[in-house]
TrEMBL record:
SUPFAM superfamilies: E set domains, Oxidoreductase molybdopterin-binding domain. Keywords: Metal-binding, Molybdenum, Oxidoreductase. This is Sulfite oxidase. Residues 43-219 form the Oxidoreductase molybdopterin-binding domain. Its cofactor is Mo-molybdopterin. It comes from the Bacteria. Residues 244-357 form the Moybdenum cofactor oxidoreductase dimerisation domain. The keyword Aminoacyl-tRNA synthetase does not apply. Gene3D superfamilies: 2.60.40.650, Oxidoreductase, molybdopterin-binding domain. It comes from Streptomyces pyxinae. InterPro entries: Ig_E-set (IPR014756), MoCF_OxRdtse_dimer (IPR005066), Mopterin_OxRdtase_euk (IPR008335), OxRdtase_Mopterin-bd_dom (IPR000572), OxRdtase_Mopterin-bd_sf (IPR036374).
Length: 360
């Protein structure tokens, strides 16, 4: 095993803080991503919190501020489970960086996305116990990890609107695939906000604050926002990223692979927008002239990705494989990365393209 007990094949974008994605083949065809292959995105050193001493504070615009131990969370609230995919806003950034440089951001391929079975307590139940006041509109999450990405350095945080926070899929999770959360994934407790960018699923959670406005934390107010081309990040610039849009990627073959010509199996994942399902995935081997419909696995839950596969007939030499998905609201992935390019390189959901060179 490797750093943080990850598989040796992890593509490590940064050692400290640890930022790594699994190779496509480690994700392909698996409804749940093994924890040892689950991507990891960190903005500062990974905290080491002693579970016995750890407490969760619930404060702000509430009738009854709370201080909860892990034991309180396990004993006083219902325990639920949600299979959910996390996708980093930077997933597939390389496709945008190929259009125009995106300095200072990790060049994530299509592996900044993974799926686990999370268990814990519904955030809605904890909020109900605290009793939000009528002015409550946003729920802020705080963690102790300090990030030097912010200037001056700041602890990590973010927020979601009250409606989403109260939605039954949003968990305070202490368990990942049946085991206590690993340290690198947020032990002892993290938020899981299914259907939203990974940045809102705050790890090492220590505080939930009920507010009448979004969090002013750097990672809510300045980073993870969609900026117009040419804009500089700054507090309140652009729009905060939240719900994910339909997306998909080819996982196998990988870019640069050299399969034998003839029938070549192609596989990948697709994710629908929030509250939607994947309606169709199509693959083209002729630049988008013609498309083959892929077979899609059923989703493990409404919050999980779907794997898909098909076979295409490839001649010897170089071919570009393209995949695109549609969701149940009819939303399509845009064809060109140039159309969705943005200064921080977030939310690339343009057609997935992989170059292969078939052996004759
Ligand atoms: N406290 C804290 N929470 C965090 C982060 C972080 O750096 N610190 N990174 C966020 C981002 S951007 C993503 S994509 C997910 C990644 O979760 P993972 O490392 O468990 O895959 O965690 C989110 N929660
Ligand atoms: Mo992220």
């Amino acid at each position: 095993m490797n750093t943080w007990d990850k598989v040796p094949g992890m593509v490590v974008h940064e050692r400290e803080p640890y930022n790594a994605e699994p190779p496509g083949a480690a994700l392909a065809g698996r409804p749940l991503t093994p924890v040892a292959a689950f991507y990891s995105r960190n903005h500062g050193p990974v905290p080491d919190l002693a579970p016995e001493r750890w407490r969760l504070r619930v404060d702000g615009l509430v009738e009854r501020p709370l201080e909860l131990s892990l034991d309180d969370l396990r004993r006083c609230f219902g325990q639920t489970e949600v299979t959910a995919t996390l996708q980093c806003a930077g997933n597939r950034r390389t496709g945008l960086a190929a259009v125009r440089d995106i300095p200072g951001e990790h060049p994530w391929g299509a592996g900044a996305v993974s799926t686990a079975r999370w268990s814990g307590v519904r955030l809605a139940e904890v909020l109900a116990e605290a009793g939000p006041r009528p002015e409550a509109a946003h729920i802020a999450f705080s963690a102790p990890d300090v990030s030097e990405v912010a200037a001056p350095p700041e602890t990590y945080g973010g927020s979601v609107p009250l409606d989403k926070a109260r939605s039954p899929e949003v968990l305070l999770a202490h368990t990942m695939d049946g085991r206590p959360l690993p340290r690198v994934h947020g032990a002892p407790l993290r938020v899981v906000v299914p259907g939203w960018i990974g940045a809102r699923s705050v790890k090492w959670l220590t505080r939930v604050t009920v507010s009448d406005r979004p969090s002013d934390n750097y990672f809510q107010a300045t980073a993870y926002r969609m900026l117009p081309a040419g804009a500089e990040p700054g507090p309140g610039e652009g729009v905060p990223l939240g719900p994910l849009a339909v997306n998909c990627a080819v996982l196998t073959p990988g870019d640069g692979d050299r399969p034998p010509s003839g029938p070549v199996p192609v596989a990948g994942y697709a994710l629908a927008g929030e509250g939607r399902t994947v309606a169709r995935v199509e693959v083209s081997a002729d630049g988008g002239e013609s498309w083959t419909r892929a077979e899609t696995d059923p989703a493990a839950s409404p919050w999980a990705w779907q794997h898909w596969r098909t076979t295409v007939e490839l001649p010897p030499g170089e071919t570009e494989l393209i995949a695109r998905a549609y969701d149940s609201a009819g939303a399509a992935m845009p064809e060109s990365p140039a159309a969705v390019w943005n200064p921080k390189g977030y939310a690339n959901n343009s057609w997935s393209r992989v170059r292969v060179r078939c052996r004759g």
